[in-house]
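User: Show me a protein chain along with its predicted structure.
Assistant: Here is one chain, sequence first, then structure tokens.
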Amino acid sequence: MKTQVYFVLGPTASGKSKFALSLAKKLSGEIINADSMQIYSELSILTARPTINDQKKIKHHLYGFVKGDVRFNVQKWCEEASKKINYLVDKNITPILVGGTGLYINSLINGMISIPSVPEKVKIESDKMISNIGKDNFFNLVKELDIDAMHNISPNDIQRIRRIWEVNFFTKKKFSYWIQNENKKLINLTNYKILLFLPQRNENYKRVDQRTHFMIKDGAIEEVKNLLKLNYNNSLPIMKAHGVSEIQSYLNNEVSIEECISKIQQVTRNYVKRQHTWWR
């Protein structure tokens, strides 16, 4: 692969998108989304998707192209991203991947573990179980099922914990069994550069807090109101986007707007903390 591929990576609200636009202008490149929530069409404000104005300046790919009732996953993203990279490289256009979803990037560069696809009913089952027994008990349960797979996984990393349980439940084999398999690569990336944004964590938190106010001002509440009208199952990834459940609580008159904003800021800061740890 002659054309160099750029990865502009880092936590939420670290300045990646702004830098990527400048880089794309300089290199005559195009931007590919590597954020697991910015793929969904129904959420643009709450996921801080690039503005229409930015997308007019530089061509963007894989933003808002999936409906929220689709359970998109890392394999599907890797397939789509690989196609876009190859398409741009063939035209001698520099691909610039931008995002903070570490699993996406790791899987694209290093390949994916070949695990059977888990059906929707199993994912709904895991969601019910977490609701019934709580996150802490679920964490302990999965740890007992597969202690090897749970090594170094935080109790807050509920998506990875769910994945381990779901694979175990559906395949009747431990997740740690499957990860012994050789990784499957969808693209052979040989010429790439990673530009990692890791601002001071407290500075990152301030940006998150400020951006939450901007999102509310820009119409995030109306956006969630429209999403809720679609009656999507609560186990779907789009319903787990930061701010959705908090704004839902506000719309249900369970919390004030100030409490709603504060909760969104807190859950996003918690996520940023995990992202910092992961990228380091």
